[in-house]
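yo

u said u wanted the structure for the complex thing, so here. seqs first:
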Amino acid sequence: MEKLSLRDQLLDFNASYTRCIDSDNLESWPGFFADVCHYRVTSAENDRTGLAAGLMYATSRAMLEDRVSALRHANVYERQTYRHMVGLPHVVRSDANEAECETPFLVVRIVQGDETFLYATGLYKDVFDLNGEKLQLKRRVVVCDSSRFDTLLAVPL
Amino acid sequence: MQTSTIQWIPQGETRVPLAVYRDDQVYADEQRNIYRGDTWNYLCLESEIPESGDYRTTFVGETPVVVARDADGEIYAFENRCTHRGALICLEKSGKDAKDFQCVYHAWTYSLKGDLKGVAFEGGVNGAGGMPEGFCKDHHHPTKLRVAIFCGLVFGSFSDDVDPLEEYLGDEICARIERVLGRPVEVIGRFTQALPNNWKLYYENVKDTYHASLLHLFFTTFRLNRLSQEGGVIVSETGAHHVSYSKVDEDGFDGYKDQGLRSDQSGYQLKDPSLLQGFKEFDDGITLQILSVFPGFVLQQIQNCLAIRQVLPRGIDKTDLNWTYIGYVSDTPAQREVRLKQANLIGAAGFVSMEDGAVGGFVQRGIAGTRAEQAVLEMGGDSTVSSSSRATEAAVRGFWKQYRVLMGV
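structre next:
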């Protein structure tokens, strides 16, 4: 099979990533990340001013697995689904080993089958590992445009 | 004075009319009697405006407020509302190097102390127009707040009668604030959480030591807050403020199992336990301290995760919870990383607190249509005093004690 261009690999990756979350297949979500990785959900304001804290903050794939595990077994929240819409990836830089990309997203949320609610918009600021058979995230910072977050951020973005 | 028809029990705090969370008149009365009444309201951290010319905008209740450090080095606060037509004087959330503030609408200019200094075209243009001769700028300052600072926390009050801040807090609360904020801090992140409920429902939740180990499985499973652990709740004399605290220990408590409660789910383990691997930084061994100052300030220490929460009403069924995550200036990079990891416990996505953001909404939705129905607050009896047990609603009753005094109900 012909090797896909980086652009096509990124499109495939984001399609699979969002399909995984939106279809409630959260157990597969950590698999999009490298063993040692950085995942963080923050606001554009924190990102711009260099404030490091996140609403979610993980430094390993195991930590992402723990989040899924907590969602399944520990935390109490209403049944809900997301629908992610991702834009086209912009490659900021790339070399043989890794690629730094930015991809805009928009997420609507549906709680208990009720109203479709505009939940979050923002930018994935990513660093991909290009050495494996398929792309893996070394880093995904979910930079939400607004500093105001809905009262509940259970399912990852 | 209360003009709505809500019926309270004659005295005591064991019943609360559910209508107080959904009544427009109550909400309006609260703005006047609580937020503009004899209370101290958290404005910002002193370290957020360290230099002359630094400023932040915030709210006291619904009222927009500017907090600024003047050239004299002091911090001043005043209503963020131009005395001309009522527009916001300052549009930014924060800034530096301000010499003054100028309303964009007609360029009226205010000093960092909140004094009206300039009125555009005050003397008219080419001898025509302008303000009348008797117009005196000194009579048109925005309302200024009293400002007081304790341990780097800047509070403001609209009241001339409220006790000085440290008396308002009391010795016990002061000591518990100093325990956490006695060292220089810096901000490591800010988030606003939009709560779908009345402000009181969140504030009661903060003071509710009864629910923590029942609603939040994450705490109990990892033995961060079993009610059997050594700890307690302090309620200030007026009932207004509280501290709940606990120490992690290795006791053999299995009351959860005995009662078959949902919150016992043994066998849940972290694959990456570094999430909870903290370091000891408080000599007293207290691993959790939640402190509230009436009507809208919370200081949180959950292990090494430190944060300030500001509770702001945005309507009868909307509340903004402004989180300011902090660390110490003296943190090593490793210590800072611990705080960032433990921040997973709090906020809208918090392993521990995500339920707190939602449960107020469950009440708000549940009380639709209520008229005379009352909430029951009898856990631990009817007192509002400190206790070594956290299976009590004493601090919640304390809130209502102070609330009824200020609201005159």
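The two ends of chain B are 8 Å apart (CA to CA). Confidence is low (pLDDT under 50) at residues 250-258 of chain B.
cya
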